[in-house]
Amino acid sequence: MRGNPYLFAAYAAAWIIHIVYLSTIVSRYSRLKREIEELKKIRS
Amino acid sequence: MKKAFPILGALTAILLGYALYEALVAAPTEQTMGDVQRIFYYHVPSAWTAFTLFLINFVASILYLVRRNPAADIIALVSAEVGVVFCTVVLVTGPIWARPVWGIWWAPGDIRLTSTLVLWLIYVSYLILRRFSSSGQTPTLAAALAVLGALCVPFVYFSIWFFRTQHPQPVMGGGGSIDPRMLHVLLINWLAFLCFAFLVCWSRYRLEELQRDVDHAHAMQSLMDPRGSVR
Amino acid sequence: MTAPTGITRATLLKDLRLEWRSKDAINSMLFFSLLVVVVFRFSFDPTAEESREIAGGLVWVAFLFAAVVALNQTWAREIRNQVLDAYRVSPAPANSLFIAKTLGNFILVTVLEALMTPLFIVFYQLRSLGPAWQLLVVAVLGTWALVVNGTFFAAMSLRTRSREIMLPLLLFPISIPAILAMVQATTSILTGEGARVWMALLVSYDLVFTTGCLLLFETVLNAE
User: Could you report the predicted ipTM of this complex, rounded to two decimals?
Assistant: First the structure.
């Protein structure tokens, strides 16, 4: 079927963009968790 | 609230999967363009989702200017970020669709793609302003920029539309009426994207709240500790 | 209503007088504008017919660069001498300051354009097929569009990091419809076609954004 590589590329691109953004959220979240642990240690 | 998240996440994943199936398999094949036309089912709903998010940004910015509500500021930030992500999807899928069908990657007179590009530029500049401005000022400046940006939108559409009437370009995006089955698939995908966008915004909102709490804690730390903060 | 206009006039005259006394800034901007035209001349070498088609774009991009250079120094003097803090504390309406600054920038950018235009005409052998006075109207409307938003964004960029790059970064995206209109109007007039719709677009753009900036300026000035 012609056009298929473009079809696949478009859908893949869309999901890759979303996954990249979600992974930035996840990594920032884990970094924040670590900072909170450090802050708690200083407090106690 | 937190307990609802995994359930909503699962439901959204199912909806996205179903919408994907509809787009790739169940939807009728287009006569002239063939299977490549199915890109349409991701390209257009992404655009609609981005516009919805930018509208939310506009309302939240005005709310902030009027009420100085910090929650409104976070909503403005979150909706702009996620809006830019969906906008990027539109700008990437558009040329991928255009190339096999019309032989060119981009037509300057294509209203939807060119307007989306300008919108993308405006909201990226909004995000950069947020990052570069001094933290006390950020919410107010960003809100002012968002209002001006939103005022610009009708001008963007009209100027590109009128440009196209002066300089005829290949017609893209399918004019005229649409097959009701295709419209159905389009709407299903839009609904799925809206649910997905809502969950992403919610996560980003929680992240931002947490970030601000941590920043506040650090600030308090350096105020109380005469030797300076740990950071 | 004499008080606000009095303040506007006083601020504007003060700025013009200061600019006239310290000619350094103006001279370097004039020279920069000249350089831009020359660089364009080496970069784009069209035939006489092509000139008229692309001159609109060339001229306005050059004007845009000159405007950014002029706009970047808008608030420099005020920052150096803590004038803005004094202004915030005084009962003077913030809009008077904004209008004065915008008018000052408008005059400055118009001077730069007046220098660059003859150079463009000479280098590209430009001759307008449409009425030349319409080109002047487009120049006024277009310059105002760039300057009103530029002055506003310059005020916004005051306390941001990388202030000089922040101004064009904020100005260009929002100015795109206006730039498209300016360029298309200029090209239409040069090639003898009508530019009425583009000029109407510029007029409404100017009205909407002047109003928007006036309404928001006080908020931005006091943002903290």
Answer: 0.89
